[in-house]
Amino acid sequence: MITIIFLCALLAAAPALHLSEKDESQFKSWMTQYNRVYNEEEYYKRLQIFTENKRRIEKHNEGNHSFTMSLNQFSDMTFGEFKKTYLWSEPQNCSATRGNYRSSNKLLPDSVDWRKKGNYVTDVKNQGNCGSCWTFSTTGCLESVTAIATGKLVPLSEQQLVDCAQDFNNHGCNGGLPSQAFEYIMYNKGLMTEADYPYRAYEGSCVYQPEHAAAFVKEVMNITAYDEAGLEDSVATRNPVSFAFEVTSDFMSYDQGVYTSTECHNTTDKVNHAVLAVGYGQENGTSYWIVKNSWSSHWGMNGYFLIERGKNMCGLAACASFPVV
Ligand SMILES: *[C@@H]1O[C@H](CO)[C@@H](O)[C@H](O)[C@H]1NC(C)=O
Ligand SMILES: *[C@@H]1O[C@H](CO)[C@@H](O)[C@H](O)[C@H]1NC(C)=O
Ligand SMILES: *[C@@H]1O[C@H](CO)[C@@H](O)[C@H](O)[C@H]1NC(C)=O
Ligand SMILES: *[C@@H]1O[C@H](CO)[C@@H](O)[C@H](O)[C@H]1NC(C)=O
Ligand SMILES: *[C@@H]1O[C@H](CO)[C@@H](O)[C@H](O)[C@H]1NC(C)=O
């Protein structure tokens, strides 16, 4: 009897994957690279998840895809865990059925990259363990719009938005929308700098000091839902633009190249991550957006990614907006 119970316990704990020495040594160097320390139980659990992620990455990279995957800081997490920590768990109110942005009707250049036009885009930041992507998309956009208007590029405060923008349907580490954050800044009459109101990655009490406001919003421009041409027009003729899209499990390990997915949806209710379009282009027959993310400069292409343009990929044209300063 005792033997049988013991055996069952062993079987239950047996890993689902066959792990090789190579898997384990790769995991150990990954742990060193990303400063991970686990207790014994956690170690085996994370080794298992890491190896599953690694297998998927290897399989993907053997195929003929427009983008590659790689190990990164998220490689010891399941997508479920990743989603819970970094993405919106509930749909946000992100549909501007009729946006107020009107196309310039200008002939647009084939490619645009605000990073190369001048000192208009701040360094890639890191949201940490907080679903505050919407604040980084917001500051990234307002930083650029302000720099284009004034010639001065100043990093702005995400934490003020996390702590103070709740009255505009924003929810700190549990999600929010750039358009609603721009509204908050407009009605609140200002946003402080990163230096004056630094990022802490958790929701605290609002300590906004109006006398230290450093950036302002006069008007919020929403691009009509699914008008990807309008998004292109605004990025080409105005400034970098905030948008949201649906992150699915194939995006977590993105490395480089043009991301496309058959896993994600194209509707407003599925978008779960906000980012910043800083340009667009095309290469190897594929049109893409150049996008600034907030998962540190170690993720993706130095913190950026490319995503296919022209197909409302993953709902990327569902709720785009930018401020007028
Ligand atoms: C890889 O995919 C591209 C684009 O879909 C296609 O043009 C190319 O022929 C494919 N190459 C191979 C070896 O299948
Ligand atoms: C969407 O808007 C409604 C009405 O303003 C509000 O009650 C609800 O909390 C909003 N949802 C989110 C996720 O912010
Ligand atoms: C822009 O969208 C936000 C919500 O996302 C909304 O509150 C606001 O009224 C819209 N602004 C305009 C000018 O349509
Ligand atoms: C285009 O293809 C080349 C050669 O395969 C590759 O190095 C490059 O990264 C590709 N460009 C994009 C944007 O995917
Ligand atoms: C979403 O995808 C479906 C199926 O591919 C397509 O028919 C539809 O036009 C797309 N809708 C939008 C808004 O992009």
TrEMBL record:
It catalyses: Hydrolysis of proteins, acting as an aminopeptidase (notably, cleaving Arg-|-Xaa bonds) as well as an endopeptidase. Residues 108-324 form the Peptidase C1A papain C-terminal domain. Residues 27-82 form the Cathepsin propeptide inhibitor domain. GO terms for cellular component: lysosome. Residues 1-16 form the signal peptide. The keyword Disulfide bond applies. InterPro entries: Papain-like_cys_pep_sf, Pept_asp_AS, Pept_cys_AS, Pept_his_AS, Peptidase_C1A, Peptidase_C1A_C, Peptidase_C1A_papain-like, Prot_inhib_I29. CDD domains: Peptidase_C1A (cd02248). The keyword Signal applies. It is found in: Lysosome. GO terms for biological process: proteolysis. It comes from the Eukaryota. Keywords: Disulfide bond, Glycoprotein, Hydrolase, Lysosome, Protease, Signal, Thiol protease, Zymogen. Coiled coil: none annotated. One of its GO terms (molecular function) is cysteine-type endopeptidase activity. This is Pro-cathepsin H. The gene is CTSH.
